[in-house]
Amino acid sequence: MSGTEGSRPFEQLRLGPLEQQVMEQLWAHDERTIRELITGLGDHHAYTTIATVLTNLERKDLVTARRAGRSVRYRPRHPRPEHAARLMEQALSSSDDRSASILHFVRGMDERETALLRRYLEDMDGGGAPDRTTGAS
Question: pTM for the whole thing?
């Protein structure tokens, strides 16, 4: 994300409650039609409501759509961990003191997360390529 877009990147990544629920469904099932999403959300939403949410998510560059016969299948553009990392980067970018924000964030981590971060940084210092999904080398 470029810093030249002003506050727009924040708006693109921030999700409303229904957008979040739709993304949760897509991350859990990888690919869904609008009807499958409606069912997964408990049959409480109109087809047009979910279609509008998906249009907004496409505009935010969070989902992709592909035609499959007569229906359209939607999938997340980024895996959940990458989306979370993008949100964290966005939060850091909005800070007046990025270093202080990082340190405050790290202080709030539990021992397991701190150990994971420590291993990752040691692997990077040693020239290794840590596994980004589990933190293991």
Answer: 0.73
